[in-house]
């Protein structure tokens, strides 16, 4: 928990001065859900970009095809704590993500994550996983994009773990495209040096979307294996 609080310290400082902006973001009514989400995600993106600059992180993006308009499910490997700010700053689309419920206790951070349409999961409660999936499906159907890390935990640079199939129900039940993302280098910032933050170069590859018609009738296990293989192959090219 101490590491999480330290990690979000800048978020707290930045968010404390933007609380009024958060309230205004809730009241926005633009032409589309995505346009509204872009406005809501403006401050989190500023936070993420500034945090990476402070630490000395250089993001090297690779976008094979721009993500489609409308809600999508981003699926990424999970290397380190800095995956989230790296992706918030570099993915050309606003999104929320699946997070452990303990983060809600962090002042300002939890409030902003709600604005971003994040979904919270109580890992101590097994039945909560089903509720989180149902909530996530609802969020996606409402037009908000989400990001998941199907490994379930950070690899810390020790090699990608097998993807868990359950979270792929989010795309299957909501009927949204899946956009695979390969991220490499974030473990060099924090995990490999304990609590001492280190400058690093991080590669982010956004792969072409997989549309619902491409995985219609496919089991969640087979879909997870397909996306896992695509990301694994991309990591070997970085």
Outline the structure in words:
- The protein contains ten helices and seven strands.
- The chain is an alpha/beta fold and 238 residues long.
- The chain has one domain: Glycerol-3-phosphate (1)-acyltransferase (3-Layer(aba) Sandwich), CATH 3.40.1130.
- Strand 3, helix 7 and strand 4 (119-121) form a beta-alpha-beta unit.
- Pathway: Phospholipid metabolism; CDP-diacylglycerol biosynthesis; CDP-diacylglycerol from sn-glycerol 3-phosphate: step 2/3; Lipid metabolism.
- Its EC number is 2.3.1.51.
- This is 1-acyl-sn-glycerol-3-phosphate acyltransferase.
- One of its GO terms (cellular component) is membrane.
Q: Which helices and strands occur, and which strands form pairs?
A:
Elements (H helix, E strand, L loop, with lengths): L1 H6 L1 H8 L2 H8 L6 H8 L1 H14 L1 E7 L9 E4 L6 H8 L5 E5 L8 H7 L3 E3 L6 H14 L4 E3 L20 H6 L3 E7 L15 E7 L13 H18 L1
GO molecular function: 1-acylglycerol-3-phosphate O-acyltransferase activity
Family: Belongs to the 1-acyl-sn-glycerol-3-phosphate acyltransferase family.
Organism: Leptospira ryugenii
